[in-house]
Design goal:
- The structure holds two protein chains of two kinds.
- Chain A is built from eight helices and six strands.
- By secondary structure, chain A is an alpha/beta fold.
- Chain A has a domain of 132 residues: Pyruvate-ferredoxin oxidoreductase, PFOR, domain III (Pyruvate-ferredoxin Oxidoreductase, domain 3, 3-Layer(aba) Sandwich).
- Chain A has a six-stranded mixed beta sheet with strand order 2-3-1-4-5-6, sandwiched between helices.
- In chain A, helix 2 links the parallel strand 4 and strand 5.
- In chain A, helix 1 crosses helix 7.
- The longest helix of chain A has 14 residues.
- Chain B is of the alpha/beta class.
- In chain B, the strands form five sheets. Chain B has a seven-stranded mixed beta sheet, with helices on both faces. Chain B has a five-stranded mixed beta sheet with strand order 9-11-10-13-14, sandwiched between helices.
- In chain B, helix 20 links the parallel strand 18 and strand 19.
- The longest helix of chain B is centred in the middle third of the chain and has 24 residues.
- The radius of gyration of chain B is 27 Å and the shape is globular.
- The chains are: A alpha/beta, B alpha/beta.
- Chains A and B meet through helix 1, strand 2, helix 2, strand 5 and helix 3 of A and helix 8, strand 8, helix 11 and strand 20 of B.
Chain lengths: 192, 575
């Protein structure tokens, strides 16, 4: 099979790494060759973060290049816009509609672009965006945004519910398991 | 059963399986997790050393005592440890010793883009270079065997994309390496001229022996291609990009051993193909070697020596199609890393900016004080350069003394700030050094250090007292301030700059992200009182923004540190 590519993008501290860890775990258990690539360090302090998840029969490059991502899972609208050119033809962007101002916007040196959703759709890109933060709050914690988005992403995979739940149980502290499972379900079943 | 492992985690697993018993490192992105994962194995003694030089010398001591040892560092860390590196090449080792160095092409988290392969050549030590997690694991055992067979430390070269990428690995059980008895051997271990002169020919002979090994080892292998008009010589991540783009089209010589290189193997490969193309990130190490042995090839003229490679770059240069993509015609604001909400460095930096002092900076989270809106740092070079740089800055122009400071973190101060402070005391510059003591090594992800009172394994240990240390090297004026208290910081800065002798200000408050730190909880802006003057915006806190002409504080980010409250002229914050 052709190598599949998912980019997970967001703002440092939003929990993007848990999403890629969980996805990687399922993919390896399914027998795929997998590479998950992340950058630690500077990017964690509120900066733009990106994780690459690739799988197939044989995966070589650890990164995803422009025009290659089948899906971009974005935790924030500006980040979805930033990485748009990494999307492959016919690819999908799944994005949280949350807006987090970067420092240049906070200081007034730049403006947060308006109507990013419409502008992305105008390029003919399939954009699946929704308010994941509200759903996370509904599940019991604003920190569960990552599981809401992962639930949404699960609709694009043919893994069983058991496979997802097992991976969640193995990746999340028991104390937060119920909130995270609920967040996953809310994201999965949300109708926009 | 295969499992996903980070390159650094797999490397640590390889060390464990190969019987490594001693680890000493200094953290540095992207090398840090090798040591953190190694420390999880109870069979391995692991520690954070104050700097890379100490780490390497300690690892050598452990090797001398007969245990397989390891030290890890980032590329610039090897500069610090270069002194022992070059002479360990002469002494050789007793039990196997591995030195890991992790390069950072693209400078994701570094101050330069140096290519560590030069060190292997210059120190005449073997260097292996894995291309994924599986190789990182397997190469550890090979490196120990080489180290013991050829009597020298072996360098393992990692890079960001190998260190911080996960790929599947097969794990095995640990094989204990029996301790090698230590035997006194002055001619081997004492490098004074008489003995060193005897050793240099041994080193040269070893390089010849290692070259013969490089010709035969399966670490360097050829993959056949369908089209022999081009042959590609490559290693590390570049190999992955080449295979991603070319598949099996062109023959590939993949090098897992990067020093010494195998001349006959390369010549034979070149003879079997039309044109030779060398794909390597950063400098032209392999390419120059090829040209030196008379193999015509192209490399840097195609790919350059700046930044990271990617599959699209390789595709474009080799004439393959790249994926089509749409670009949003929109000015997307950058999202640079910032000091976190509640970061104790913020208040101190605000005071430095307000007093318009020259700030000779250093390496750590606090380098972020250089960015807008604080813009409070004048220079950043390398670990420790703040303290010694300030000394020269003040000596060369004494007028600087009353308007300049050095800022350095607790871990960086222990790493290489102490000697600079000794110089300030000894050579008597009237300098003011500020130690930003946030009780942790922050930038690399919360590692313990000699000032925190805990060791790498998390056990309580001797805590170095910074005040006593500074006083003992001859600084009489040492004081501690709370960086959340702006007035206290302002007063201290003014007094110490005015004082007629060197001084140290310790700005002390633990990193806001440490789990044990209890926060006051978010504070709010009273919109009725707020006049929208943006005074609170001058500290660059990510939790504060202006909406509809009034300041608002994001309750999910705010820790309640109260620094912004002290800037508000209308008492509109937290009241």
């Amino acid at each position: 099979m052709k190598t599949k590519n998912i980019m997970i993008v967001g703002v440092g501290g939003q929990g993007t790494l848990l999403a890629s860890k969980l996805l990687g775990k399922i993919l390896v258990s399914k027998g795929f060759d997998v590479k998950v690539s992340e950058v630690h360090g500077m990017s964690q302090r509120g900066g733009s973060v990106v994780t690459y998840v690739r799988w197939g029969d044989k995966v070589y490059s650890p990164i995803i290049d422009r025009g290659e991502a089948d899906i971009i899972l974005s935790f924030e609208m500006l980040e979805a816009a930033r990485w748009t050119e990494y999307l492959a033809e016919g690819g999908t962007i799944i994005s949280n509609t949350q807006q987090t101002n970067p420092m240049p916007v906070i200081t007034g040196a730049a403006e947060y672009p308006l109507e990013l959703d419409n502008k992305i759709r105008a390029l003919g890109i399939n954009l699946d965006c929704f308010d994941a933060l509200s759903l996370a709050n509904e599940a019991g914690s604003s920190k569960a945004v990552n599981l809401v988005l992962l639930g949404r992403l699960s609709n694009y995979f043919d893994f069983t519910q058991d496979e997802w739940m097992k991976a969640i149980e193995e990746s999340v502290p028991p104390k937060f398991l119920e909130i995270n499972k609920k967040a996953f379900e809310l994201g999965k079943n949300f109708k926009s | 059963m295969k499992q996903l492992m980070l390159g650094n985690e797999a490397f640590a697993r390889g060390l464990y399986e190969a019987g490594c018993a001693f680890v000493s490192s200094y953290p540095g992105t992207p090398s840090t997790e090798i040591t953190e994962y190694a420390a999880k194995y109870k069979e391995i003694y692991a520690e954070w050393a104050p700097n890379e030089k100490v780490a390497m010398e300690s690892a050598f001591g452990a090797s001398l005592a007969g245990k397989r040892s390891f030290c890890g560092m980032k590329h610039v860390g090897l500069n610090v440890a270069a002194d022992p590196l070059f002479t360990l090449s002469y002494t050789g080792i007793n039990a196997g010793m591995i030195i890991a160095v992790a390069d950072d092409p693209g400078m994701h988290s570094s101050q330069n883009e140096q290519d560590s392969r030069h060190y292997a050549i210059a120190s005449k030590l073997p260097m292996l270079e894995p291309a994924d997690s599986g190789e990182a694991l397997r190469f550890a055992e090979v490196a120990y065997e080489l180290s013991e067979k050829y009597d020298c430390p072996v360098i393992m070269k990692m890079c960001t994309r190998i260190a911080h990428s996960q790929s599947p690995v097969e794990i095995s059980e640990r094989t204990e390496a029996p301790a090698k008895p230590y035997e006194k051997n002055p001619q081997k271990y004492i490098m004074m001229p008489g003995y060193a002169k005897l050793k240099h020919p041994v080193v040269e002979k070893r390089t010849l022996d290692l070259t013969a090994y490089a010709e035969e080892t399966p670490l360097n292998f050829t993959e056949q291609g369908e089209d022999n008009s081009i042959g590609i010589i490559t290693s590390s991540t570049s190999y992955q990009y080449v295979k991603e783009v070319c598949g099996n089209k062109y023959p590939v010589l993949k090098l897992g051993m990067i020093n010494p290189l195998p001349p006959e193997k390369i010549k034979a490969f070149a003879a079997s193909v039309g044109k030779v193309i060398v794909v390597e990130e950063l400098d032209d190490i392999i390419e120059s070697f090829c040209k030196n042995i008379g193999v015509d090839c192209k490399g840097k003229e195609l790919f350059g020596c700046i930044g990271e490679f990617s599959q699209n770059l390789i595709a474009e240069k080799l004439g393959f199609d790249t994926g089509k993509f749409e670009k949003l015609d929109e000015n997307i604001p950058a999202r640079p890393p910032v000091m976190c909400a509640g970061c104790p460095h913020r208040g101190l930096y605000y005071i430095l900016k307000k007093n318009k002092v020259n700030v000779i900076g250093d390496i750590g989270c606090y380098t972020l004080g250089a960015v807008a809106p604080l813009n409070a740092v004048d220079s950043v070079v390398c670990m420790g350069a703040s303290v010694s740089g300030l000394h020269g800055f003040n000596k060369a122009n004494p007028e600087n003394e009353g308007r300049s400071v050095a800022v350095i973190g607790d871990s960086t101060f222990m790493h290489s700030g102490i000697t600079g402070l000794v110089n300030i005391a000894y050579n008597e510059s009237n300098s003011t050094v500020i130690i930003l003591d946030n009780s942790i090594t922050g930038m690399t992800g919360h590692q313990q250090n000699p000032t925190t009172g805990f060791n790498l394994k998390g056990d309580p240990c001797t805590k170095i007292d910074l005040e006593t240390l500074c006083r003992s090297v001859g600084i009489n004026r040492v004081r501690v301030v709370d960086p959340y208290n702006l007035k206290e910081c302002d007063d201290a800065l003014k007094e110490e700059l005015a004082a007629n002798e060197p001084s140290v200000i310790i700005s002390r408050r633990p990193c806001a992200l440490l789990k044990y730190v209890k926060h006051n909880g978010p504070i709010e802006v009273n919109a009725d009182k707020c006049i929208g003057c943006k005074s609170c915006m001058r500290i660059g806190c990510p939790a504060i923004s202006i909406k509809d002409g009034k300041a608002v504080i994001d309750a999910t980010l705010c820790t309640g540190c109260g620094v912004c409250k002290q800037l508000c002229p209308k008492d509109a914050i937290g009241c």
